[in-house]
Amino acid sequence: MRYNPDEFKSPQDKRLALEHERLDAFCRESRYLTCEVLDQQYRLPRDFLLTYRLRSIVGIGEDQSPVYGDQHQVRITLSAKYPLEPARCALVSPVWHPNIQSGGSLHGRVQLAVSDEPGVWSLEQIAERIGDLLRYRMYQAEDRPPFPENAAAAKWVREYAEPKGLIAPGKGLVGQVASLPSTGNRMDLYSEIALENGRKIQLLFGDLAHIPEEHEVDLLVLSAFSDDYIPTSTSLIGALHRQGISVRQLAEDKEADLRTPFRCWLSKPVQRNHIGRILCFEPKEQEDPGSLISGIFQSIMPFAYLDEGIQKIAMPIVSTGDQGFASDYLFTKLLEAALFWLQKEVPFTEIKIVERHQGKVDRARQIMEQVRQNLGKKIITPFSFDYFISYSRKNSAEAEFLYQGLRQSAPHRKVFLDREEISVGQFWQNQLYDNLDACRYIIALLSGDYLQSQMCIEEYNIGRARNLDENRNVVLPVFLYSCDLPTYMKALQFHDAREGDRERIQAFCAGLSDQP
Question: Between 123 and which of 19, 48, 83, 194 could a Cys-Cys bridge form, CB atoms 3.0 to 4.6 Å apart?
Answer without folding.
Answer: 19
